[in-house]
Design brief:
The chain has 16 helices and 13 strands. By secondary structure, it is of the alpha/beta class. Helix 10 links the parallel strand 4 and strand 5. 56% of the residues are buried.
């Protein structure tokens, strides 16, 4: 067996067996297979695809390439939530405390942002003192004591995925159904949860641009999760425009706090209640998804979710006063207002262009090793379907670098389309798969 034969076989569209996939994955993870051969293999997979059995095999090999986390010391049914990545998606900061307030233990390991998508760990690091790394014992103790802990991903979980993803990112092989599925599910299955909720984004600001591809991805991930003994559900949600209004790390934390105070944008408030309700159902704290959603809405209304957020922050060394004093968080020196050139209605907001504009302010990174400006980003003042007058502010762009902020404002202007007729607002929740 050799790499050239395996690459050629997949290039020609043939089905690989477990031994062949193992040879490629383990060889690359262990350093015996060079980058150029793995890149060729990934490109062959990108163009020819993998069938269901190949995808399951790839996922399992990547899952078992590192540690399998044991969360048995945490009481109750642990439910993990994962988003496939979007613009303005700060739901973990809201959904985690909501689910915890309803009695579901939330032991969350999150990642950093790359490109136009944000990362939960980056957002949490805008909170003064917050520690995104904890010893395993402290992590589990905090979940038992407060109901929630959120830390960065350990490098020992699915190291094969970490190495392969870094190569995919620089070889144009990210957007492939089997490669996305194996990347996500290998980490989720190794992370020790009892159940998994998947938020599959669909639209211009997502990897899956249309509903059909999003359904295929969701169905495959749910199948793999259930086959591994994890009760798994997926919800397909809209990413034609950014979620909420804030895009950028500190700005998104501030918006999450506003949602927990019942003062946030309606779309992210609605989605957070639904996602939390599904977690409550998966955690067997509700007999149905509908009951779970009602419990989540109650936790939002009575302030108990906000208290859980404060407990999370305090438990990991952060300053819970940020919920009242946002000035304690990083803030930018510059603000440019992007104004409408005509009256009408917001017809479209290209989520990817908005995400890239935020990245270009300094809020995102192009490479994993890049530093970021935690204060930079933007806040939309209008969403699709909103009426707008000529000269009215569409968006405020924040940054600390004058040229970057100016260029980002130009990009925002190009991303917002104004028409004469009021369009229908996008359907936020497109489908639930279980």
């Amino acid at each position: 067996m050799n790499a050239v034969d395996i690459i050629t076989k997949k290039r020609d569209g043939a089905v690989l067996d477990e031994a062949e996939i193992r040879y490629m994955v383990m060889g690359y993870t262990q350093g015996t297979l060079p980058d150029y051969q793995m890149a060729a293999f990934l490109m062959a997979v990108y163009f020819k695809g993998m069938n269901r059995q190949e995808t399951i095999c790839l996922t399992n090999l990547m899952k078992h390439s590192g540690d399998i986390v044991d969360l048995g010391a945490i009481n109750g049914i642990k439910v993990d939530k994962h988003s496939t990545g979007g613009v303005g998606d700060k739901t973990t900061l809201i959904v985690g405390p909501l689910a915890a307030a309803c009695g579901v233990p939330v032991a969350k390991m999150s990642g950093r942002g790359l490109g136009f998508t944000g990362g939960t760990v980056d957002k949490l690091e805008t909170i003064p003192g917050y520690q995104t790394s904890m010893a395993a014992r402290d992590f589990m103790n905090q979940v038992n004591e407060t109901g929630i802990a959120v830390i960065g991903q350990t490098g020992h979980i699915a190291p094969a995925d970490k190495k392969i993803y870094a190569l995919r990112d620089v070889t144009g092989t990210v957007e492939n159904l089997s490669l996305i599925t194996s990347s996500i599910m290998s980490k989720k299955l190794a992370s020790g949860s009892d159940a998994i909720l998947l938020d599959v984004k669909c639209g211009s600001g997502a990897f899956m641009k249309n509903l059909q591809d999003a359904e295929r991805l969701a169905e495959l991930m749910v199948e793999i999760g259930n086959a591994d003994g994890k009760k798994t559900m997926a919800v397909i949600t809209d990413m034609e425009q950014p979620l909420g209004c804030a895009v950028g790390n500190a700005l998104e934390v501030q918006e999450a706090i506003a949602v927990l105070k019942n003062k946030g944008p309606s779309d992210i408030t609605e989605l957070s209640a639904v996602l939390a309700g599904m977690m409550v159902f998966l955690g067997e704290k509700a007999a149905s998804v509908e009951e779970g959603i009602e419990k989540a809405k109650k936790a939002l209304a009575d302030g108990s979710a906000l208290e859980k957020f404060k407990a999370l922050v305090k438990g990991q060394g952060g300053n819970p006063r940020i919920t009242e004093e946002t000035g304690l968080m990083p803030h930018s020196n510059l603000c440019i207002e992007v104004k409408a050139g005509q009256a009408g209605y917001v017809k479209a907001i290209d989520a990817m262009k908005i995400g890239l504009a935020s990245q270009h302010t300094g809020a995102g990174r192009q490479r994993k090793e890049d530093g970021i400006d935690l204060a930079a980003g933007l806040v939309l003042c209008k969403k699709i379907g909103d009426a707008v007058q000529a000269g009215e502010v569409l968006c405020r762009v924040y940054g600390n670098d004058a040229e970057k902020t100016r260029l980002a404002a130009v990009e925002v202007k190009a991303a917002v389309v104004i028409g004469t007729a009021r369009p229908e607002k996008p359907q936020l929740i497109k489908k639930v798969i279980r």
